[in-house]
Design goal:
It contains 6 helices and 33 strands. It is mainly beta. The protein is globular, with a radius of gyration of 23 Å.
């Protein structure tokens, strides 16, 4: 039976993770006397997470499946793209139409790219036309940490959080200062990378400024094709001030712009792009146990396609008001949100899909509430949200999570949550592809998990099932977008992490079964199995490390006839701190020079990714 086949595939990834756990365990259960260094390790392994509950909670208190990539992790790995940073993380699947700024999709727990919500410092960033985020245009050096929350968060964030939320956090101001940081480097494919930042704090005012530039000739995305280049320039400004009364005001602005080349029917083409978020906020302590926060923000996604002569400019403007009330160990959040999506520009020119969008503007009004209740050893988290969408009417989403501390190290959790996703402007109105009769996606998810949290290590396991009605799926060229009536996604996620002496270890294994219940086929472009292993070692002034990412096969089509093989990638890294605040780093990506593919062109050719690549960089600052 099909079920037996799927279950039989699970042990391959799980056994690898178990072997890693058995290797780490003897090291992790050394003397229980906690040193200051061990306390730092404990913070790294059980970090505070904001995205899961709108409030700071340690990873084991969130009652969610979460992964945090902290500053030390990002500094060690120094990825060239956000998708490289996310690939192989628990419950995360990534596809790319080539390397260096080419179209990318992030699938959380088998749901679509449009169902993975991306936020930057609390501001939603996505294309209102495409529906999902342009992950490929974000420079990871602009971010200090990342939180990946898996599972529905519709009751907190509204539409698009069916599979979960990825939130990127920019660099926070450090005490004193100013603290400068500079990085210069380059490598394969005539790649150049520069970044600089300045942050500090004085008299209650905190500031952080940063900029970066990446330029590369790129690699071919089609066999025997030309190199497809990419450049990105990003600027960031972040400031805030806290008054003696405890009130706080601040603003954030991040803008990335550049150009990427791609293959259009065998000919080189160029798209200019802009990704931008900006926001201001004010937070007021209304009473000793009541804080009120108002945020006004705008996110913009712009693109100009020089091959077709088309220009698109989408904007999402949001006003969000949150009120947090505390009573001893309990906390309640009550809020409301207004969001407006608009589309401007032209898709005429020489495009074969001429014509304007039938609708170019829509809004969404919402009210929401959440209760975080602590009856130790029992914890209860409940949330409810009401959305009134101009295009799809009213939607109610909610969630309930229960957590029980089995002992001081282990927490058992169970949750149920619902979510919905409204079709994007492209889904509905893109000439030649859009389908104005589409229904909104709705989902229900049940999850059971357990986390073991120790001073020097942790482990986490989760089982879940998500039932999606009316999953929105794009078809092949010339066929309109459609709803898949019923989809069932089952999955298992396992993860381990350890800080043992000079060693930093992490491992993850994921099994996902996203099935179209009408046909019995796997949803296209989703891999069922993946694993990731990260190992780093400090050797005085030197550091050595590597990451191994493995992904199973996937299908490029809904009929499961066009099979794309799996792959394994080995990335190596080394660092040398040759003077106070000075270091040099070497990264070798795809060290074994594997040819790997995650998507194909409409004509059946593979989208090729980069082979072996080496990058060297010199860094100054903390």
């Amino acid at each position: 039976m099909k079920t037996k086949h799927h279950l039989a595939a699970l042990p391959m990834a799980a056994q690898s993770l178990a072997a890693f756990g058995l290797a780490v365990l003897p090291l992790a259960v050394q003397a229980q006397v906690t040193t200051p260094a061990e306390e730092d390790d404990a913070v790294a392994l059980n970090p505070l997470v904001i995205t899961a509950t709108l409030a700071p909670r340690t990873a084991d208190e969130t009652l969610s499946s979460v992964t945090v990539l902290d500053e030390a992790t990002l500094r060690r790995q120094d990825p060239t793209s956000v998708t490289d940073m996310l690939r192989g993380q628990p419950g995360v699947d990534v596809t790319t139409n080539g390397s260096f700024g080419k179209n990318s999709s992030v699938y959380l727990r088998g749901t679509g790219n449009e169902s993975a919500l991306l936020m930057i410092d609390g501001i939603r960033l996505r294309s209102a036309t495409a529906g999902g985020a342009a992950w490929q245009f974000l420079d990871p050096r602009m971010f200090q940490r990342a939180e990946i929350v898996r599972g529905p968060r519709g009751s907190l964030y509204g539409a698009d959080a069916v599979g979960g939320v990825v939130q990127l956090f920019t660099h926070e101001a450090e005490e004193g200062g100013p603290h400068p940081r500079v990085s210069v480097g380059g490598g394969s494919f005539d790649t150049q990378r520069y970044s600089a930042g300045l942050s500090g704090e004085s008299g209650g005012t905190r500031y952080s400024f940063a900029g970066s530039h990446l330029n590369t000739d790129g690699v071919p995305v089609r066999r025997d094709g030309e190199d497809m280049g990419y450049d990105n320039t990003t600027a960031l400004t972040r400031m805030s001030h806290t008054f003696e009364s405890g009130a706080e005001v601040g603003f954030l602005a991040l803008r990335a712009r550049g150009a990427t080349e791609y293959d259009e029917s065998g000919s080189p083409a160029t798209t200019d792009y802009v990704q931008q978020v900006a926001g201001i906020y004010g937070e007021l302590p209304v009473a000793a146990n009541w804080r009120s926060r108002l945020t006004l923000s705008e996110a913009r996604d712009e693109s100009a396609n020089h091959f077709w002569g088309s220009i698109l400019d989408t904007q999402t403007r949001t006003a969000r008001w949150e009120n947090t009330l505390r009573a001893e160990a309990h906390e309640v959040v009550i809020g409301m949100e207004y969001m407006n999506d608009s589309v401007a520009g032209s898709i005429t020119g020489d495009s074969p899909w001429d014509g304007p969008y039938d609708v170019e503007d829509r809004d969404n009004k919402a009210v929401f509430t959440q209760a975080l209740l602590d009856f130790s050893p029992l914890a209860v988290q409940a949330s409810l949200r009401f959305d009134d969408n101009e295009a799809y009417g009213e939607e109610v989403t909610g969630s309930l999570a229960l957590g029980y501390d089995i002992n001081s190290q282990h927490t058992l959790r169970a949750s149920y949550g619902t979510a919905f996703k409204a079709p994007s402007f492209n889904d509905l109105y893109w000439p030649g592809f859009g389908n104005p009769d589409l229904e909104a996606e709705t989902s229900e998810t049940v999850e059971l998990g357990v986390r073991g949290q120790f001073t020097r290590w942790f482990w986490d396991a989760a089982l879940y099932q998500t039932d999606v009605d009316n999953l929105i799926v794009w078809q092949q060229m010339g066929r309109p977008t459609m709803n898949v009536p019923t989809t069932r996604i089952r999955g298992v996620e396992l993860s381990l992490g350890a800080e043992v002496g000079a060693w930093t270890l992490a491992a993850a294994a994921t099994y996902t079964d996203p099935e179209n219940r009408q046909t019995g086929n796997r949803i296209q472009r989703r891999a069922s199995q993946s694993a990731r292993f990260d190992v780093d070692r400090e050797l005085g002034e030197w550091s050595l490390g590597g990451s191994w990412v493995v992904q199973g096969h996937r299908y490029n089509d809904a009929a499961n006839e066009d099979r794309i093989g799996g792959f394994g990638l080995l990335n190596l890294r080394a660092g040398w701190q040759f003077a106070p605040l000075w270091s040099v780093r070497l990264n070798i990506e795809n060290a074994l020079d594997k040819e790997y593919v995650t998507t194909r062109f409409f004509d059946g050719d593979d989208y090729l990714n980069a082979g072996r690549a080496a990058f060297v960089s010199v860094h100054f600052g903390q």
